Structures
1.
Amino acid sequence: MFRARAEDFRTAGRRSYARSAGALRAPAVRGKSMQKIRIHTKSRPGIVYCGEGAFEQGYEETLAGKELFVVTDSNVARLYADLIEKYFGSAHVCVVPAGEKNKNHKTLFSILDEMVRARCHRKTVLVAFGGGVVGDVGGFAASLYMRGTRLVQIPTTLLAQVDSSVGGKTAIDYRGYKNIVGSFYQPEQVLCDPRFLTTLPKREIRCGLGEIVKTAALDAEIFDILQGATDFGLRFLEKLVPLCVRFKAGVVERDERETAGLRQCLNLGHTTAHALELDYGRRSHGEYVLVGTAFETKIALAEGVCKREYAERILKIVSRALPKMPRFPDIGSAAENALLDKKNSGQEKISLVVPKARGEYAEISLPLPTYAEYLKKIEGGLL
Amino acid sequence: MFRARAEDFRTAGRRSYARSAGALRAPAVRGKSMQKIRIHTKSRPGIVYCGEGAFEQGYEETLAGKELFVVTDSNVARLYADLIEKYFGSAHVCVVPAGEKNKNHKTLFSILDEMVRARCHRKTVLVAFGGGVVGDVGGFAASLYMRGTRLVQIPTTLLAQVDSSVGGKTAIDYRGYKNIVGSFYQPEQVLCDPRFLTTLPKREIRCGLGEIVKTAALDAEIFDILQGATDFGLRFLEKLVPLCVRFKAGVVERDERETAGLRQCLNLGHTTAHALELDYGRRSHGEYVLVGTAFETKIALAEGVCKREYAERILKIVSRALPKMPRFPDIGSAAENALLDKKNSGQEKISLVVPKARGEYAEISLPLPTYAEYLKKIEGGLL
């Protein structure tokens, strides 16, 4: 019901699916500087604390005095040694090696091993304290140990705060496929505190920016804010965290397990991003999402799904976030990776979620050769 | 709210928790020889087909023409080579080694590997065709691959038909702990066909009998049937399959994730069964459940939770199912294993679900030394 494929656009009626940001947004309980955003999913209600003081307040309300098992990575453990000592001194702290390449089953089972040794039980609160990798693999471990322990996410990167810590997707990469083994498991609490963003390197900021720009291509309010911004500095981006969280929460509430055709809107730009990431690696996920958003916007324009004026506005936002577009030789062969995307269930076609108009998106489906041809033309500057 | 611990029995009021079988039973849609039993859980509705023709009917309705990935074990693949060829000839068939010792992460990842190679996707139907191990590890793989594929269980053992295939618990054993890593994942369909029971060795029949006797200690109707039976032959036990399924379905519907204090009633006899199984191994799970049910009935009697007449009736049923009670030297030290049970979350006490009266059970909680002392006395014939 929610789907609108390219074929539809070419036939009578041109059915499409549009949502205004207002309709998708979860209600917020606004405080002075901190917001609590509730997520009511079928499996478990959750709450996201956003803003200054989120960490302390969440800690006091949910973690103090509980049996905790903290998963963090080597970078975060070093940067926040004092905080860990102060708040998690009496907890089991499991430090996994940092980096996307460690989001694998070896890391997962090392966490499970330590949970067994620590005699964790179902009421233990697993605290995933770190970026996207810690959140994904730590959340996964929490979902599996004794078929599920309690889970609190404390995301320390911009990407994790605006995107990956919210919504309950957990996973590891396996056999070269991103997130191919995982679970849906909602955290009971997510603490998005801007204090953790101050130590981020530039690359990490850009990484988060990728998901923010993607959200702008789905949500009118965030689009307007990014359009009107003079710079994309950290202070500015911090303010977008609760807006992105509310947008995502609204989507996840309506389609927790990506079965109703709605949640996949969050994959805008991601089919191409994942295809390139698999082939070229090295750059951050967020950069690939920026590239993917630009490529898929151009495809939407060429397919007649998106008007030129709006496409150009999206592209302008992307180019401000990523002034120098990387080069991708052999991009045609990278296109095949898109077939491995989870959305393309058993089809020989490539599904893309693309921008349509301000606050609206569409889903289009292209034969692989057409998609590959588009990528080559865009890379060659012909589109 | 549902819990009634031993302490309660000793204090004023003696709160206890009792359910009649009628209240817990899922509604059945009766056909001529086959029943369809619906399970409405929060996560996913499911349906269990019980009786002659269950396999063919379920196959026609759900599996024919679909993209299938079949998980089975070496025994089942040998015994049902013709059936597999006929019905699953065009499907990917993944044969895992038979036996409880293979319910581990190696087998799990070998299935996931083959799913990747077969390019399975979210709409692929994973068919777990075999006994409890195939169901548990196959169901687990289905829950994890792309965060969940479709799942149909075709249980081929009495144990799997009356118990493990229904209710959505999946798991592997890990680091010496039973089912410590797993998920809740409801199959959309379970096909319990008596045709598969005809090839079972005696040991497997007794294994299923363990869970049937346990259910009798919870459900008045099944208790009456077992009490009145003259022999426990396969034809007789087959008729109990839909009754046991309906009872379990009723429990699972009300407490899918074992969080409401109800589903753990299904662990009657299991705390002691698992403790002994960990120490002594070799015998079948069902035999340990029979032993556990006998031991825990005697404990309930000694604690004053269960009346002598009813306890003796339960013990009589157990002894007809297991005429020769095995011996357990050093049973006192085996008692410690009970602390590892998932029910005993972070407590130094042992929780037991014990028979109370016909169709009623109680939960009691004992300090470890008391529990160990009971086991020793019972083993020594003093209780």
2.
Amino acid sequence: MSQKIFENVAILGLGLIGSSLAHGLRDKGLASRVVGYDASEDVRARAEKLAFCDEIAATPEDSVKDADLVVLSMPVGATGEAAKSIAGALKPGVIVTDVGGVKSAVITKVEAALPEEIAFVPGHPIAGTEHSGPEAGFGSLFEGRWAILTPSDRTTDAALQKISDLWHALGSDVETMTPEHHDLVLATTSHLPHLIAFNIVGTAADMEEVTRSEVIKFSAGGFRDFTRIAASDPVMWRDIFLNNKEAVLEMLGRFSEDLAAVQRMIRWEDGDALQDLFTRTRAIRRGIIEAGQETEAPDFGRRAAQSEKGGAKSES
Amino acid sequence: MSQKIFENVAILGLGLIGSSLAHGLRDKGLASRVVGYDASEDVRARAEKLAFCDEIAATPEDSVKDADLVVLSMPVGATGEAAKSIAGALKPGVIVTDVGGVKSAVITKVEAALPEEIAFVPGHPIAGTEHSGPEAGFGSLFEGRWAILTPSDRTTDAALQKISDLWHALGSDVETMTPEHHDLVLATTSHLPHLIAFNIVGTAADMEEVTRSEVIKFSAGGFRDFTRIAASDPVMWRDIFLNNKEAVLEMLGRFSEDLAAVQRMIRWEDGDALQDLFTRTRAIRRGIIEAGQETEAPDFGRRAAQSEKGGAKSES
């Protein structure tokens, strides 16, 4: 159904996103050949066994030498060094892209490392799961999701078009915006929620009067929802917070102000104000379901997952 | 498979929990007759049509007059008044129980309203979905979940045993603890998470630089997880925060302290401390899955729900 967009693709970084890309390229016939590389020898060995690439290269230079597309899909703190390591081995006419959750900081580092004539298309698929590593990837990960592209001075129109075609072929919708705007939008829709989830899970784990076993047993009351994103890859998230510091601190400040207001409503028993807030937030959920970004099934459809997998059941 | 535990059951409050109880009692043959009542005329009419009760009574007094079990399943702010309204109509030997998310405040109000000789078993099923109203109920809601019972001075051993049998028959595990401990445990595992979710959804909705449509489109980055519990019933949650004020304020204080520490880690770029926290929180998720309180499927099994229902797809 799809057609080839690239001949030789190199994917550097074979975690959830890199391995899903490799699966997707193969499933949809979008490249002739995919070469993978990962900085971890252990991950390279696991990827070799999983065989979602045609070849696993031993060095970054080797992985890119024939590539007409290079995808940088490591934690954003490592992207600059990765770009440095391949700069001398790139073929003329190659397109380099990335999938990092932060754009401004990554663009600065990658463009300082790459030769000026290399086309770079900064990108970010809004897709993933709480699982990580090469075993976690699957080809349909990007279907029905958004991919954001944030062109820079080094992004040619032709390269932007090809990367846009690639994400469309993988099943995503594509939106283009400035790197700065991306970093603020994602601080709102992704970075702050993750930080809050990590924090609340930490707070609950530290309660002396409530045992760990009680937190786990009675988590269906709401807490377990937070644990999913708090189970996401620690290194990836550390790097995101360090590389999108200003936008995250700005959002944290707003969140804390709002929380102080809610705390005051409770202390002074302002039931009307609480009910107003809780009524307003319901409408947002409705919008997300209508936009096709969420299932309408109660409780994320956990019951369906349960009966298929023999896992657990439902609740708010 | 199950056997009758009660003859005549009255359920006051026909929202998600009340209607699910009625379904469960009928599906499993646990009562001869179920009479329902709701303070809202509109809800009574809808419940009449849905026909999950044998009868919908026109007044609270009528609903309880033949009952050997009365279940109070309204928002906790209304439970005291409901107990008052039925106090004069109760049959000798009746057991009264409730399903409220707060126990200490409810016990005080209910016991002030009921005659001293009536057995009261304060209870709380840790079950629900983000949907509310009589249409949202289903009989398997309590399967695989925990029901907490918090006996008071008015709880006889015989009544405690029968209510415990009831929850077991509905598929739940039962745990007994003091009302005060319940209120602290639930402040941790349920009330604080809901408050944080309501708050973050409000904060995101108020961002001037990020449009509502962007928040919705890119919500798969993490935000949409929070919107599920922030879509829960506003009145029920208002009442919980007002009736469990001290424990919730205590947890909010701890959460805010921890968040200030995380904010400082980001400002001073303490990557090691961030990574330590994020690594620690992963283990809690694992515990919840192993305890059977959560599905192991990535992303809550949203993809399964999607393919069944034609809703949305996956992501972290």
